[in-house]
Write a structure and sequence with these properties.
This protein is mainly alpha-helical. Helix 5 packs across helix 6. The longest helix has 18 residues. It is globular and about 45 Å long. The N and C termini lie far apart (55 Å).
């Protein structure tokens, strides 16, 4: 089986990650890349990194490194096992915020379309979940509306 151009690029980015970010790179190196045209961006399972090739083609190598690391960190932090009775879509959002803050704070380049808010720096996914749950309206408690959430955070007077 020959590797396509995206798979070769993923392998190259993983190798660079191992050198530049050994912890993150070693975790990301275990994920097997799988093309999945039924998704818009990417997703991960404990053993795979599924991706839409058009989406990955639009990302720089640095952004791809971020995506691979994000995917692997969900597994490293056992997020699926920690969901308990939480709403799946909101838990996924909270875990993304937690991971993306960690990665940004470690110097990885955040792609424009990922969830990030520096107010969640140093917060666990569980604490972020509670914050998000307290900030959304009841009528917005659905996965279909997740992209329309308006957070009602406090604004300081100097903003």
């Amino acid at each position: 089986m020959t590797m396509n151009a995206i798979e070769k690029r993923i392998a190259k980015v993983k190798a660079t990650l191992v050198v530049e970010q050994p912890y993150f790179g070693s975790i990301a190196s275990y994920l097997k890349p799988i093309l999945n045209e039924d998704i818009k961006t990417f997703l991960s399972t404990p053993k795979t990194f599924e991706y839409n090739d058009d989406y990955l083609s639009s990302k720089s190598d640095e952004e791809l490194a971020f995506l691979l690391t994000n995917a692997s960190m969900h597994q490293a932090f056992s997020h699926e096992q920690r969901i308990d009775s939480r709403m799946q879509w909101l838990w996924t959002l909270a875990t993304d915020y937690a991971i993306n803050c960690l990665l940004v704070n470690n110097g990885l380049e955040l792609p424009d379309d990922l969830n990030y808010d520096d107010r969640f720096d140093d917060m666990s996914a569980e604490a972020i979940y509670v914050t998000l749950e307290n900030e959304i309206d009841d009528e917005k408690h659905s996965p279909e509306k997740v992209s329309q959430i308006e957070f009602q955070g406090q604004v300081s007077s100097d903003e």
